[in-house]
Amino acid sequence: MIVFKNVSMRYPNSAHLFRQVSFNIDKGDFVLVTGHSGAGKSTLLKLMAGIEAPSSGQILINQQDIGKLHPNAVPYLRRRFGLVFQDHKLLYDRNSFDNVALPLSIQGITGEEAARRVRAALDKVGLLNKEKAMPITLSGGEQQRLAIARAVVSRPSIVIADEPTGGLDQTASLEIMQLLKAFNEVGVTVVIAMHDVAQVSSIAYRTLHIDHQTISTLPAQTAML
Ligand code: ADP
Ligand code: ADP
């Protein structure tokens, strides 16, 4: 589903983050991207989502080379991804319902169909009773669950989350991980960047570990931390 072939990446005027890395992420995988702060975890996610371009090499999403996509095709690629960030990136002047409805309205889905899907997504993350709440009145864990509802409302095939438990306590972190795992169990491929894997005990996952400009892949394992 996601294939990296000999991908190298460096930002202008800086050292290489990766050199010639190759790996596959298969449909239905639950993958953690690990590595120290500054190793390139966020950058790797941005490459997958087509937000950054590699310095060299190929990135294929469903057999399509994203470096060769026509600019008009990029919004369609983005739609396949649900993105979740550590800082939520919610719109604080709109209520929960409107935050989740936004990706649908960008696709031209409005009215009853949009409302049904927004409520289905809010229900999945346990926030159906908070649809009128403004994000600022929600706890950190609830804000992150709202961001996950917004990420999945367009039914993406891949969810990419960058430190989604950053700043959350242990209980809220575990809830977020279990929620992402629940989407994975209904077939969504999930890729999560995380520097601290202590929160994922008892969840089976594959690891892509970034170190010294290389990426090592470890097979599925269950953390017992
Ligand atoms: P991680 O997520 O593992 O902490 P990042 O991918 O955020 O790592 O960053 C890796 C390195 O690339 C850091 O040294 C960071 O400063 C640098 N970097 C990240 N984004 C940019 C950018 N847009 N331009 C230049 N350097 C960047
Ligand atoms: P509906 O299909 O009627 O919208 P579902 O209960 O199937 O309701 O899904 C509720 C929400 O959960 C969807 O809007 C979507 O956000 C998310 N979801 C469910 N299944 C998937 C899936 N396979 N891939 C991505 N998102 C999903």
Automatic annotation (TrEMBL):
PROSITE patterns: ABC_TRANSPORTER_1, ABC_TRANSPORTER_2. The keyword Cell membrane applies. It comes from the Bacteria. SUPFAM superfamilies: P-loop containing nucleoside triphosphate hydrolases. GO terms for biological process: cell division. Residues 2-224 form the ABC transporter domain. Pfam families: ABC_tran (PF00005). Part of the ABC transporter FtsEX involved in cellular division. Important for assembly or stability of the septal ring. Belongs to the ABC transporter superfamily. Homodimer. Forms a membrane-associated complex with FtsX. This is Cell division ATP-binding protein FtsE.
